[in-house]
Design goal:
Layout (H helix, E strand, L loop, with lengths): L10 E2 L8 E12 L4 E11 L9 E4 L4 E7 L2 E2 L6 E3 L2 E4 L5 E10 L9 E5 L2 E5 L18 E11 L5 E4 L2 E8 L3 E13 L5 E4 L2 E8 L5 E8 L8 H18 L7 E7 L6 E2 L4 E5 L12 H17 L7 E2 L5 H19 L2 H21 L10 E2 L8 H18 L1 H15 L3 E2 L1 H12 L8 H4 L5 E9 L4 E9 L14 E8 L19 E5 L3 E6 L7 E4 L8 E3 L4 H10 L3 H24 L8 H12 L4 H7 L5 H5 L7 H18 L1 H10 L10 H17 L5 H13 L3 H12 L5 H13 L3 H12 L6 H8 L10 H12 L2 H4 L5 H14 L3 H8 L10 H15 L6 H11 L1
Parallel strand pairs: 2-12, 18-19, 19-21, 22-24, 25-31
Antiparallel strand pairs: 1-23, 2-3, 3-9, 4-8, 5-6, 5-9, 7-8, 10-11, 11-16, 12-15, 13-16, 14-15, 17-18, 20-21, 25-26, 26-29, 27-28, 27-30
Helix pairs in contact: 1-2, 2-3, 3-4, 3-5, 4-5, 4-10, 5-6, 6-7, 9-10, 9-11, 10-14, 12-16, 15-16, 16-18, 17-18, 18-19, 19-20, 20-22, 24-25, 24-26, 25-27, 26-27
Bound molecules: tryptophan and zinc ion (ZN).
Length: about 900
C-alpha cells in the first residue's frame, strides 16, 4: 500500500502550468496472464508547441514493475532514465519521438480498485482520476489527449469477452487456448476515460437510431445469469439518448455504446468513452429484487454517465480542480432528465433533502471546500456532495438568472467553442455570459468560496402606501482557509400570498410569470419593494429552492400552515412543513434539556391532516409528511445532543401517528395495490405514501400494526413493499424484527444487492444494541471488507446512524476507526469515505468530543496511513 503521509504536499490550482509534452497517439497491448499482466505501450510524444524550454520528460506511474523503456526503438540503459516516487524521467529527448515502455502489473492483487483489477467475473478498469498511471507510464492529466488503439490478450475460456473503448477492429485465436481482440477509439480523449474489460459476461443487445438517422449498437454486459435484470437499464439508456437530443440537441457520436456492470466498484459508475463501467447497483433491477428508489436511481445514473459523453468527454476538464465543470453540469442534466421523466416537484424536493443531509454538513465542517477547490492533498477526496450537488445548484442558478432559452444558447455556444478541448469552469460561465449578455462577474464567488450562505428575510407592509418592503441580508460563516467572505449574487425567487391563499400578482410586461419574481440579492443588505399590494402578504421565499442557502425568516406557525396549505409553489408548500417540523423539534429539544416534556401544538396536527386527506399527489403527500432527518436537524443546532434530538423527533412522529391514526389507517387500506407492480410514476407515489402510513402506524408500537407489516412483508410481490415492511419491523421492539430479517436473508442470500439492503436495514435501525449487531455482522460470511458495496451498506450506514454512531460511550467511534484502519490497507479511497462520518465531531458535547478526538488521533498516528485517510483525519483534527 502507498505510504504517502511522508509527503503530504498539497496540489494547488494557482500552480497550474500547461504540460511541457503532449501525447497524441497511444497503442496499448495488454496481455493478461495468470500471475500478472504485461502492458506494452507505444506513445507518440511531442513537445507542447505552446510551452517554451527544454524540460525533461516526466511520466506518472504507480505500482508498475518496469521491464524496458525505448526511445525511437533504442533500448534505454539504467542511467538513461530515472524512476523515483511515482515518476519516470528522461532528461534528453527529441522534439518528437516514440516512447515504448513495457511493465508488469498485478491486477489480482489490486484491492484499491483503481487501475486494472480483478473481480469475480473478470478484469475491469477504473482510471478516473489517476488510475491510468497504475496501468502504464503516462502523462496522467486530463489536458493530455490522445487517440487510442488497444489490443487485449487473455485465456479464451475464462475470459471470452474482451472490450475496450471505441470500435472492434480485429479478433482471433492464439496458441494455448488464448485469444485477442483489438479496439480503436476514433475520438481523442484524456487517459482517465480509458477502459477495458476481460471477462465472462452475458450481454443484452439493442439498437438506437439517432435523430439524424445514425444507428448505435447498444450492449449491457453483466454477470452470467443476470440478463433478466438488465431491461430497465437498457430502457433508461434509450430514454436518456432521446432526451438529450430533444432538450439540448445533443446526439450520440458513437457506433457502439457499451455498459458493463461489476460488483466491485468504488463509486456509482464511470463514463469511459463508449464503454461505461457501472457498479451493479446502478444496472441490475427486477421488481422482486429492486425498490422503486433503485429503479429511479438506475435511470439517473445511466442518464448521468450517458450525458457525460458531451459534458465531460467531448468537452473535458483542463485539470482536476475543474471537476465540477463536468460533474456539476452533468448532475444538473440528470436532475432535469429525472424531473422530465418522473415528477418534477418530488424530484426537486428529494434533491434539496439530499443537499441538506449531505452537502450542508460538508460545507460547515472540516472538509468544506469551494465548488472549484483551490487545493487538495488527494483528488479522490474531492468527489464530493459539494462538487456534484452544490455544483449542480450553481448551474441551476445560472439557468434561473438568465432563463431556460438563454441557457440553451449558452450550452450551444459552449460546445461550439470548446468541442474537443480541455477547459475550465470560467470557460463555461463565459459561454453563458456571452450567450445571455449577462454579467456573471459577481456570481463567481459561488465557485471560489466554501460555506453555505445565510439569507435572512424581513418584511414590512405599509397599508397606506399599499406596498410591501422585503429586506434581505446575506452572510457566510468562515470556512477552513477563508476567514472573510465576499458577497454572493443570489437569485431569490419570491411570491406573495394573500390572505385568501392566492398569489398576489405583481407582474409587468417584461416578467412572464407575474406571480413569482426572481430578485437578485447582491449586497450584504438590500430592500425590494413590491407595489400595489392590497393586504399584508405572507412571503413565499426562495421558491423551488432558487439558491443553495439557509434562509431565515421568522414565520409564525399560522403563517407556515398557510403556506403549507396554499402556496402555488409545491416546493415551498413542502418547505413550510419542514420549517414547522424543524421549529417544533428544536423547541422540544430545548424543553427536554430543561427537564420538561415536549409540547406539540394541535395546529401541526391540523396542518398535517389537511395534507394527508387532501387531493394532492400521493408522492407529494409522502414527502410533505416526512420529517427532516436527524443530521439535517442537527445542522440547525449549536451543540448537538443526539439522544434528545432522537427523542424529540420520534416524539413528533408519535404525536402525528396518534392524532392521525384513523387517517393513516384509511389511506393505508385505500392505497392497496390494485394490479400488478409497475414503475409508473403514479404507482410509485402510491406505494411511497402507503408505506409511509405503515411506518407512522407502527410508531404507535402496537401488535396489530406489526401484524399488518408482517402480512405486507409476506405477501408483497415487489421489493419496494417487502423492504418497507422489513424496515418497519427491524425498527420495532419485539421478536418480529429478527424473524423477518432471518426470513429475508434466507430468501435472498444469493442476490448480492439484496443482501446489501439486509445489512443496511440492520445498521440503520433505531433499536438498541446496534454496535454489537454491526460488529457481529462484520464476521458474517456475506460481509467482505474488500467489496465497497458491503462496506457502504454496513459500515457507512452505521456511521450515518446518528444516535447510535454518536453514542455517549464512544463505542461507535472506536469501532469505526478500527474498521477504517483495516480497510485503509486495502482500499484507501473507500476508507477515506468512511472516515467522513467523523466530520461533525466538534458539534457534540465535551464527552463525545473526547472520544471522537481519541479515535481520530489513533488513525492519525497509524504508520503507513494513506494520503486519502490522512487528509480527512488531519483536517478533522485541525
Ligand atoms: N466520473 C464518475 C461519475 O461521476 C465518478 C467516478 C466513478 C469516480 N468512479 C470513480 C471518481 C472512482 C473517483 C474514483 O460519473
Ligand atoms: Zn459524473
Amino acid at each position: 500500500m502507498q505510504d504517502t503521509t511522508s509527503d503530504p504536499t498539497p496540489v494547488r490550482l494557482e500552480d497550474y502550468t500547461p504540460p511541457p509534452f503532449l501525447i497524441d497517439d497511444v497503442r496499448l497491448d495488454v496481455d493478461i496472464r495468470a500471475e500478472y499482466a504485461l502492458v506494452t505501450s507505444t506513445l507518440r510524444v511531442l513537445r507542447n508547441p505552446l510551452v517554451q524550454g527544454s524540460a525533461a520528460l516526466e511520466l506518472d506511474g504507480e505500482d508498475l514493475d518496469t521491464q524496458s523503456v525505448r526511445v525511437d526503438g533504442r533500448l534505454l540503459q539504467d542511467g538513461d532514465y530515472h524512476v523515483e516516487a511515482g515518476s519516470l524521467s528522461i532528461n534528453v529527448v527529441p522534439e518528437r519521438f516514440t516512447l515504448e515502455t513495457q511493465v508488469r502489473i498485478r491486477p489480482d492483487q489490486n484491492t484499491q480498485l483503481s487501475g486494472l483489477y480483478r473481480s469475480r467475473d473478470g478484469y475491469f478498469t477504473q482510471c478516473e482520476p489517476q488510475g491510468f498511471r497504475r496501468i502504464t507510464w503516462f502523462i496522467d492529466r486530463p489536458d493530455v489527449m490522445a487517440r487510442y488503439a488497444v489490443t487485449i490478450h487473455a485465456d479464451k475460456a475464462a475470459f471470452p469477452v474482451l472490450l475496450a473503448n471505441g470500435n472492434p477492429v480485429g479478433a482471433g485465436d492464439e496458441p494455448d487456448g488464448r485469444h485477442y481482440a483489438r479496439w480503436e477509439d476514433p475520438f481523442r480523449k484524456p487517459c482517465y476515460l480509458f477502459a477495458m474489460v476481460a471477462g465472462k459476461l452475458d450481454v443484452l443487445r439493442d439498437r438506437y437510431r439517432t435523430a439524424s438517422g445514425r444507428e448505435v449498437q447498444l450492449a449491457i454486459y453483466v454477470e452470467p445469469g443476470k440478463l433478466d435484470q438488465c431491461a430497465h437499464a437498457m430502457a433508461a439508456l434509450k430514454k436518456s439518448m432521446r432526451w438529450d437530443e430533444q432538450r439540448f440537441g445533443l446526439e450520440c457520436d458513437l457506433d457502439h455504446y457499451m455498459i458493463v456492470a461489476v460488483g466491485d466498484f468504488n463509486m456509482g459508475a464511470m463514463e469511459n468513452k463508449g464503454l461505461n463501467i457501472f457498479n451493479t447497483k446502478y444496472v441490475l433491477a427486477r421488481a422482486d429484487v429492486a425498490t422503486d428508489v433503485d429503479f429511479e436511481n438506475i435511470d439517473r445514473v445511466v442518464a448521468h454517465e450517458y450525458f457525460h459523453n458531451w459534458t465531460g468527454n467531448r468537452v473535458t476538464c483542463r485539470d482536476w480542480f475543474q471537476l465540477s465543470l463536468k460533474e456539476g453540469l452533468t448532475v444538473f442534466r440528470d436532475q432535469e432528465f429525472g424531473a422530465d421523466t418522473h415528477s418534477r416537484e418530488t424530484a426537486r424536493i428529494r434533491e434539496v433533502r439530499g443537499l441538506r443531509a449531505a452537502q450542508f454538513p460538508e460545507d460547515a465542517g472540516p472538509m468544506a471546500h469551494p465548488v472549484r477547490p483551490s487545493t487538495y492533498l488527494e483528488i479522490n477526496n474531492f468527489y464530493t456532495a459539494t462538487v456534484y450537488e452544490k455544483g449542480a445548484e450553481v448551474v441551476r442558478m445560472i439557468q434561473t438568472l438568465i432563463g431556460r432559452e438563454a441557457f440553451r444558447r449558452g450550452m450551444d455556444l459552449y460546445f461550439a467553442r470548446h468541442d474537443g478541448q480541455a477547459v475550465t469552469c470560467d470557460d463555461f460561465v463565459a459561454a453563458m455570459a456571452d450567450a445571455a449578455g449577462f454579467d456573471f462577474e459577481p456570481f463567481m464567488t459561488w465557485y471560489s468560496q466554501a460555506g453555505t450562505p445565510k439569507v435572512t428575510a424581513r418584511g414590512e407592509y405599509d397599508s397606506r402606501k399599499r406596498c410591501y418592503a422585503l429586506t434581505l441580508t446575506q452572510s457566510c460563516a468562515p470556512s477552513p482557509g477563508q476567514s472573510e467572505k465576499e458577497s454572493y449574487l443570489i437569485p431569490v425567487a419570491v411570491g406573495l400570498l394573500g390572505p385568501d391563499g392566492k398569489d398576489m400578482l405583481f407582474g409587468n410586461e417584461a416578467d412572464p410569470e407575474p406571480k413569482t419574481r426572481v430578485l437578485q440579492l447582491l449586497e450584504p443588505e438590500q430592500t425590494f419593494v413590491f407595489e400595489n399590494i392590497d393586504a399584508p402578504p405572507v412571503p413565499s421565499l426562495l421558491r423551488n429552492f432558487s439558491a443553495p442557502v439557509v434562509l431565515e425568516c421568522d414565520y409564525t406557525i399560522a403563517e407556515l400552515a398557510h403556506l403549507m396549505a396554499h402556496d402555488s409553489d409545491p416546493f415551498n408548500r413542502w418547505e413550510a412543513g419542514q420549517r414547522l417540523y424543524g421549529q417544533l423539534v428544536r423547541a422540544a429539544v430545548a424543553n427536554l434539556a430543561r427537564g420538561q416534556a415536549p409540547e406539540w401544538p394541535m395546529s401541526v396536527l391540523d396542518a398535517a391532516r389537511k395534507v394527508l386527506v387532501g387531493s394532492g399527489e400521493p408522492a407529494f403527500i409522502a414527502e410533505a409528511l416526512t420529517l427532516p432527518s436527524e443530521p439535517t436537524l442537527a445542522e440547525q443546532m449549536e451543540v448537538v445532543d443526539p439522544e434528545r434530538l432522537y427523542e424529540a423527533r420520534t416524539g413528533l412522529a408519535r404525536f402525528l401517528a396518534h392524532g392521525l391514526e384513523a387517517e393513516f389507517a384509511r389511506r393505508y387500506e385505500a392505497l392497496a395495490p390494485a394490479g400488478p407492480y409497475s414503475t409508473e410514476t403514479e404507482e410509485v407515489g402510491r406505494r411511497a405514501l402507503r408505506n409511509l402510513c405503515l411506518a407512522y402506524l407502527n410508531e404507535l408500537d402496537r401488535q396489530d400494526y406489526r401484524s399488518v407489516a408482517r402480512r405486507q412483508f409476506d405477501s408483497a410481490d415487489n421489493m419496494t413493499d417487502q423492504f418497507a415492511a422489513l424496515a418497519v419491523l427491524a425498527n420495532a421492539p419485539g421478536p418480529e424484527g429478527d424473524a423477518a430479517l432471518d426470513a429475508f436473508y434466507e430468501r435472498w442470500q444469493a442476490e448480492d444487492l439484496v443482501v446489501d439492503k439486509w445489512f443496511a436495514v440492520q445498521a440503520s435501525s433505531r433499536l438498541p444494541g446496534r454496535l454489537e449487531r454491526v460488529e457481529r455482522l462484520t464476521s458474517h460470511p456475506a460481509f467482505d471488507l474488500r467489496t465497497p458495496n458491503k462496506v457502504y451498506s454496513l459500515l457507512r450506514t452505521f456511521g450515518a446512524n446518528h444516535r447510535h454512531f454518536h453514542s455517549a460511550d464512544g463505542g461507535g467511534y472506536r469501532f469505526l476507526a478500527s474498521q477504517i484502519a483495516r480497510l485503509d490497507a486495502m482500499n484507501p479511497q473507500v476508507a477515506a469515505r468512511l472516515a467522513r462520518a467523523f466530520d461533525r465531531w466538534r458539534r457534540f458535547d465535551a464527552v463525545r468530543q473526547g472520544h471522537a478526538k481519541a479515535a481520530l488521533e489513533s488513525l492519525h498516528r497509524l504508520e503507513g496511513l494513506s494520503r486519502d485517510v490522512f487528509e480527512v483525519v488531519d483536517k478533522a483534527l485541525r
